[in-house]
Amino acid sequence: MSHTCNSHKTETTRHTTLSKKQHIAIIGSGSAAFAAAIKATELGAKVTIIEAADNIGGTCVNVGCVPSKIFIRGAHIADLQNNHNFKGIALNKPSINRKEMVKQQQQWVEKLRITKYENILNTNPDISLIKGFASFKDSFTLSVSRNDGSSIDVKADKFLLATGASADLPDLPGLTGTPFWTSTEALVAEEIPEHLLVIGASVVALEMAQAFHQLGSKVTILARHSLLSREDPAISEALTDIFNQQGMNVIPNTHVELVEYNNNSFILRTTNGEYTGDKLLVATGRKANTSALSLENVGVKTDKSGRIIIDEYMRTNVEHIYAAGDCTTHPQFVYVAAAAGTHAARNMLDKPTALDLSIVPSVIFTNPQVATVGLSESNQNSFKSQIKSRTLTLENVPRAIANMNTHGFIKLVADKNTGRILGCQVIANEAGEIIQTAALAIQNKMTVQELADQLFPYLTMVEGLKLTAQTFFKDVKQLSCCAG
Question: In the chain, is it the N or the C terminus that has fewer CB atoms within a 10 Å radius of its CB?
Answer without folding.
Answer: N
